[in-house]
MFS transporter (Glycomyces terrestris), 427 residues
Amino acid sequence: MQAGPRCPRRAPVRPPFDWTDVTDSSLRERPPRTDPVLARWRNAVFTIFALSGFVFANWAARVPNIRDILGASTQEMGVLILGLSGGAILGLVASSHVITHLGVNRAIVWFLATAAVGLIGAGLIAGYTPSFWLLFLALMVSGAGNAVLDVAMNVAGAANERRIGKTLMPMYHAGFSVGTMLGAGTGALTEQLGVPVEAHLTAVGVVVIALDLWVVRYLQPAEEPHEAEPGTPAGWRTRLSAWTDPRILLIGLIILGMAFTEGSANDWLGLAMVDGYGLTNPGGAAVFAVFVTAMTAGRLFGGAALDRFGRVPVLAGSALLAFAGLLLVIIGPTAPVAIAGSVLWGIGASLGFPVGMSAAADDPRKATANVAAVATIGYLAFLVGPPLIGLLGEEVGLRKAFLVVLVLVAVAAVCSPAARKPKGLSG
């Protein structure tokens, strides 16, 4: 019997879409999970930045109440607030030496607590023994504590950024912004509820100290392990050498320009919208809130842009956005155009300070001294900026006074190549 013709073997039918390929590919391409120890360190640094902003904003929210308690004039309140700024400058000048002596993590513990103790002192003095000069001293203590903390937490953030291998500094500074928003909200609520200033600021200070002692358990050493180079001095003269490093000074100019840009909006944008565009006081406050929101968003999402395009293009682009936004606020024909400008201004101002701090900390051996130097230059903007814009605004109007800010934004853009990581440094 003859066998019939054999049927050809049919190839196995493949599904039209193989999900295994997709999941296998996604597993292969998924970035490695961050080490839990580094992730907890990252979250701790973010919390510390937020606590720093929280301390400052709770004080700022009660300034009108404290003015009424003291019966002080606007000029006298300006002198009082100089205590905060003066303490900050003293803290910044001493910061590299103090942090080198204590270590980064111990400096964070002690000086976040110092800032909180100054806040508690300010509340108790205002509530129980109102004294202008005692309050001035309490603010100096808080300002000095926050300044040393500022340098230490930026050094810790830069070290964590290097270990994880992703740009995180803008996110940390967004944490500061989140802290200021929470602090402002807390202050506004206590003001609305009629909570005495001494009870409010004391409670905030105690909570901050408790969180400080809790969160620092998750910090890792920020100092990079390295062998000391023969013949390299490690004393205060070496730390002061940051002030003769051209790259560090140029990074300082970037931070100066962008800090001036940020600070000018913080102090004067709301009033400029009221005086220049006829908005109501609540409307001016709302535009300032739009600016802060845009700046916070820029910091939260700016890390991805920095990792993709690099520091120099992103810094230059940020300066361009800030420049364009400022122009719209200065010469915009209508309030909606100026509001759109405030959004661009906020996004453009968001990355200069954190990226400058990260760039200053590129060399871990000199990170503390370099960060202290550029932070001191940047803080000059917060000291000089408000009165300068105010004086010019009195003569030519606030919108025209912002032309000074345009110049400093342009300087920051020109200096942006200094943020490129030097050859020979890993990461």
About this structure: The chain has two domains: 36-223, 238-426.
